[in-house]
Amino acid sequence: MTIAQKKLITMAHGAGGSQMGRLIKDTILANLGGSASLPEVEIALEELDDSAAVGGVVFSTDSYVVKPLFFPGGDIGSLAVAGTVNDISMVGADAAAISCALMLEEGFPIEELERILKSMSETSKLAGVPVVTGDTKVVERGALDGMFINTSGIGFGGESLQKNIDVVKEYREFEENWIKDSNVRDGDTIIVSGTMGDHGVTILSTREGYGFESEVQSDIYPLNKMISSALEEGGIVAMKDPTRGGLANTLNEWSEKSKVGILIREEHIPLTEGVVSACEMLGIDPLAIGNEGKVTIAVVREKAEDVLESLCKTDPGKKAAIIGEARSDIRGVVMETVMGGKRIVDMPAGDPVPRIC
User: Structural domain tally of the chain?
Assistant: First the structure.
């Protein structure tokens, strides 16, 4: 077989969306799957949620290869800590601790490393989640773009999660012990915690020099405390941080896993003027651009306003909004446009901005 005949990894395979989904399902799960049959596994690899759960312990891991390393609103260090804390939080768990593995390129400036580590420390303290273990590797010059980081985290279900589940059961049948992508049902309200596309546009603009970084900055933020408060209100059935592939990818995953349609309204989706301007100039869809400090929530309709109010009381949730609902009478994800029509919101092939995290 020649090189031209071989199937090769492309950048799209790591950008979220349908191509990454096919790689995970056809190649990774085909070789590493099978944990769903084990009785102690509560959220299995095959479910492709943001975290796994084994014997009451929630576990998540992520690697960060963002380019550039520093950008308005954050850097690779704050991104790594917040990203892993948020993944633990998405299933309703309280993040307890994280690990940090550094992959450094020969010649990387110690001064920049210290700047990144201080950023990690500040974000860790903001979240109230300590870094408790780690690893350091150095590779030869030219093997990396300076440095990569891997962070893993563990968490546990707490009182707020159980209170949330008890409230859900007041309004409909609910047999799950965790918040999962497959829990969305007809009538559930869809909420986003703030403006979409900020992180991806910031990375693209900083990398390419478009100048939009003066109008918008990354939304990196650990969301665990905000989410804990929302769980106290109760009624939440699904949560996901719309990172690679953005809101479009998140909603399509929910629709596919939960087997229910989702209707959203364009006029209710919060966007900054800088993101709108950048997307119009570059011809990209803001719904397909990744975020790093936002959460998408599905909640039983009776508790939607209470959860929204809870989000709006926090710094990262000040611009939270109800954007739609789950609907059994439609297929996939559909958006009512500001012009009064409707369009299908497809799962993107990949995030239009590569290496945003």
Answer: 1
Examine residue 1 and state whether it is found in any structural domain, yes or no: no
* Residue 229: domain span: 11-21+28-344
94 pairs with which residues across the strands?
Answer: 156
The reported pLDDT for the residue numbered 5 is 65
Q: What is the CATH number of the domain that holds 178?
A: 3.90.650.10
Bridge partners of 343, per DSSP, are 335
- The residue ranking higher by pLDDT, 125 or 211, is 125
Summarised one tens digit per residue, pLDDT across range 109-121 is 999 999 999 999 9
- The DSSP letter of residue 24 is I
What is the overall mean pLDDT for the chain? 94
What are the structure tokens assigned to 353, written together? 């901005």
Cis peptide leading into residue 68 (ω within 30°): yes
Q: Is residue 349 part of a domain?
A: no
Q: What is the DSSP string of 251-293?
A: HHHHHHHHT-EEEEEGGGS---HHHHHHHHHHT--GGGS--SS
> What is the residue whose two structure tokens read 């939607």?
304
Residue 272: inside a domain: yes
Q: Is residue 172 part of a domain?
A: yes
Reduced 3-state DSSP string for 282-350: HCCCHHHCCCCCCCEEEECHHHHHHHHHHHHCCCCCCCCEEEEEEECCCCCEEEECCCCCEEECCCCCC
The pTM of the full predicted model, rounded to 2 decimals, is 0.95
Q: Which of 5-9, 90-94, 304-308, 317-321 has the lowest mean pLDDT?
A: 5-9
What is the average pLDDT across 73-94?
98
Is there a contact between 353 and 288 (Cβ–Cβ < 8 Å)?
Answer: no
Non-local CB neighbours of 33 within 8 Å, separated by 6+ positions? 45, 46
Structure tokens at 66: 């963002």
pLDDT, tens only, 275-290: 999 999 999 999 999 9
